[in-house]
Design a protein that fits this description.
Bound molecules: iron/sulfur cluster
Largest sheet: 7 strands, parallel
Mean pLDDT: 88
Number of strands: 25
Radius of gyration: 40 Å
Distance between the termini: 110 Å
Length: 1010
Amino acid sequence: MLDVQFLTFHQLALQLDDERQASQDAGETAGSLEVVSDLFFERLLSGIARRKLPGLHGLDLSNLPPGAWPALWTTMRDLRDATVDPSGVLRAVAEGLFDPHETPNLQALFTLHAAVLEAGRALHVGSADDLAAAVIPLVPSSPWLSRLAHVCYYGFYDVTQVQLSLFEAVVKRRPATLYFPLGDDPAFDFARRFFERHIEPLRGTEPTVAAPDARPETPPQIRIMDAVGPDDELTVACKEILTLVETHGYRFDDIGMVARTLEPYRAALRRTLDQHRIPFTTTAGSPVIREPAAKVAAQLASLPLTQFYRAPMLDVLTSALYRSGLPESDGCEPRPDLWRLAVREMGITRGEAEWQRLSSAGSLQVWASADAAEEPAEGTGQFRIDAAQLRLLAKLVARLIDDCRALPEQGSAVELTDAFAALAERHLAIPGLTSDMPGAGGATEQAAACGAAIGEVLAQLRQLDRLGETMRWDEWTALFMDAMERATMPVEPVEHAGIQVLDAMAARGLTFRALFVLGLNEKVFPRYVREDAFLRDRNRRLLDETLGYKIDEKLAGYDEERLLFALLQQAARQRLYLSYQRADANGRALAPSAYLDPFLRQEPLGRTADVSVPRRLSDRLELPLFTPPLLTREELAVGLILQGRDPVALLNSVGRGGALFAHGYAALHVIENEGRGLGEHDGVTGPLDRRWAALASRGLAPTSLEQYARCPFQYFSAQVLRLEPVRSDTSGDVSPLVLGELCHDTLHQCYRRLVETGWPQKECTRDALHAEIEAAAGAVCADYAKDHGTGYALVWQLARETVVVLAEAMLESDSEEFRASGFRPVQFEVEAEGSLDAVDPVAFKGLKVRGRLDRVDRRAQPPALRVIDYKYRHSGGERSADRDLLASAVRGFRLQPPLYALMTPEGAPAKPESVELAFLMRKPSPQVERARFESSAWNGPAGGLLKKTVQTIVGGIREGHYAILPDSYCEHCEFSAACRRFHGPTWWRAYSSPPTRLLRQLRKLKVPHE
Ligand code: SF4
């Protein structure tokens, strides 16, 4: 309606270029220039370097580190923007205008500048300033400009040579007013120098430009604030903003929030403003690569390069953005959590062949953790992943690998970029980039902005096509990653009314009723200015003062900082809040900016701010800024808790789970109380009658009783709650659990076959025994590999050799022992059952124990049975507890031997005379150690102690006492994540409770021997 247009310099250039293109005949492209990204020019520079053009040796481009190319391009761009003529400058270098020591370097630099200019002309590409330069000749004849009644310029105090030329052309064509920041203050020297040198001559005979004092008659109120870290800085600013709006009648769009750079505030900006319900718009951008969509896109591109390494493969396949392409009716609900375990368990690391194992796998038995104890309690540590889930994963993997394999190995930038875009379209659903999945129309603006930013990155890569290079997929991927890491997206993508959050450059020319300037710290505002490594300030000065090119010295940046701060002071009409961090978020002290010196209050202990925000919320609540109406829901809730008041109603009213809080708070109250005894939050459940009845009818397992004796809470987690530990093993080793299982199965198969041939009565040669073991180990390992995979080939081969060596040692040891004792193996993996009546005929009447015995040996004369149980020792040493099985039984460490002694093996006529543990140890010699428990011990001098131990343990299980009992084994405990052993009050309650004291006392019992 007002017919007023607001344009930046670049938008003005685009407007004029559009006008030119519209006036050309269709198909005519003469003079068209594509504005390309910095990435394009950096690639162009490295391409020129690769061609080793003469005259460039002074820059030693072949040894330039990758991070130096953007810096070199920045120098080149400064030369372009200053319209430096390379041939003229090279002549000046040859004539000795510059320091002779720098001649080779400068010659190379200006030669490179000439090459880049030439390449840009040949390829019809340029930067935004090149476009501005290209449209300057259009200004005199532009119909669009001729329609403008007046042109107003504002918001700059310095421009590049190209922008200055465009400005000159426009003001010559149309009546114009320039609003320029000039003041008496020395802070304006930077702007004044530009004005006097470049603007003053333009005024000619035109009326004098008016320059009224921009300062309001009443200076703004100034308030200085300090806080710790950017989060607190933002929080205090938000409180002040709410005060202005609620108490002083400000509108949100009257208020500005500015920092020299918004980078330190990116992470907390949206969260803090949203928590305070403050609407905002901002020029801040957040890095695209932090977004899940960007991460998964980057991983998708890298899959062929990593040979389908399992971590990125699983990250892509389990991403919420993954488009499986399978019909929902496939009948199997995808379980990405199980996929990770399955892939680890099958030992898939990388390569198509390894992934193909998935398609042939049946269901999978998964060991949940490689760190688990060497001998897990029965029924723990394993769970099953069914075949349908594995088939589903196999299908997804095959589809993904096939599509990645179809990517071209090399090609032009457009070919490779299009191939990736097609791959992303097929496998990912990223709003704003790929077509949405059906029903996924509710994409947030944030997600769409991320998709658009990735699309912009792909567009930049397509621009590289003009360079005519053929690149490999790995080169394309490196460029893609580089561009993604630089790309940003708007923090607030939607335009609306609200406070304006800007960086200091974007705030130039704007005014606010109230302005907050954040981050006034040394090296932040003013920023730390460095010289240009390729074109030092002394050379820039010569270019500027002697040769007449408008190119700024870098260290003049400090003058610009002063000017920026002065402009911000003027931008506040009524209130100005200056904020700095007295320490960073980690508590490291920070110095306030020297710009604050005139404003800080002088106190006896030094200069201080008007508002200094304490770190602790309880201290802050004393401040007027933290009164309840200004608190966020979170602060209010925490404040109520700190004051001992109930926040449940508040949490319920804002939908934040009041009931959950009440439950948690009550539990915490109990848990933190040191004075009381063990309770339900400590694992003391009291008798669980149904569970006990089921256990009694099924029979107690010795290993479970051992687990209870070790730590009742560990027993509770595994046997009562049936928690499944899901820590994944990243070592790549074959776990001790698996090695133990392989040894067991190999010995089982081997003995069965040998016994069938009449061994040990019939002698067997060493070679024949070895062949038998090799065959058994081979069959067992192949069987295992079919379901679980093998992992790294070398590690698997070593594991197989270990199994063979240990089985051989066991057979050798047994052969000698059989000859001496007259025992012969007769049963393998046999079920056995016994009664605990003998332990306590009243309390344990009818209570059964049960187990599965590895091997039963029989002796004909005198007739007797014995039980052999194999134990694999990964660490190689013998434990002191295993030297005396009677003592370790009495102390609750080993309960298998005494309880097996009470059992009758299925089909056997009697109970065993003894129980032997055979330890297979991964060490040079001896590799087999034996320990024996005589069944007669039950009736010997230690029998009473043995009964007491079993009574204590079984009694504890029946009574539901499952408190923690920490010790050195905690290091390997699968349930430590669910355990509060480091919590002082919990530890103390458990330590001082009678049931755990009894268990501890068992460990110190002295055992009388006959
Ligand atoms: S970490 Fe220790 S105290 Fe906790 S459950 Fe495991 S073994 Fe028991």
